[in-house]
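Much of our argument rests on the idea that a fold can be written as discrete symbols. The record that follows shows the chain in one-letter code together with its fold in token form.
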Amino acid sequence: MTVYLTQSAGVYRSFSEITKGALQHAVAENGLSLSADDADKLMRAYDSLHVFPEIPKALDALKQLPQVEPYIFTNGTQDMVSASVRSSPDLGPYADLFKGFVTVHEIQVFKPSMKVYDDLVVRTGKEGKAGEVWVVTANPFDAVGARVAGLQSAWIDRVGKGWVDRLGDVIGGVRPTVVVSGVDEAVGEIMTLSAE
């Protein structure tokens, strides 16, 4: 079960349910077995993943920018993202930096539905100012979705191939506002562009 299948069918299941279903699917597809206990352990391990190396530098930079209000914007649930931030050895020390977690669970549709970006704008107090909201993401669909909704997006190009996604081209040449190699670079670009 994937996010796109459920959303296309008009059925909502939480991201944690979909993630667990995807794990079970991958195990079955590869002819393996996994006990319910082991599946639960793997799901809990998801909560304490390490971040990419530049993330602490980016978060330290954000601490020095009181005019920036960082949120975590996710397809996950409030419980899922809260557990991940608290359990992460890398993110835990920065938990208080975030103004909040904006999840899709309340409106029960996933990115890149325009509803989630509209909800982000409202929940960050930026109604009528969507162009001031930045989505920083490594997911092309999220970068394009944000732009279509009138937000800015910084796409993280972790493999260094440049913007190769063609969905934006299909729907009218939509591309991220900036393409950067890491979140720290995104913070710098956003601050530069916001000052103009």
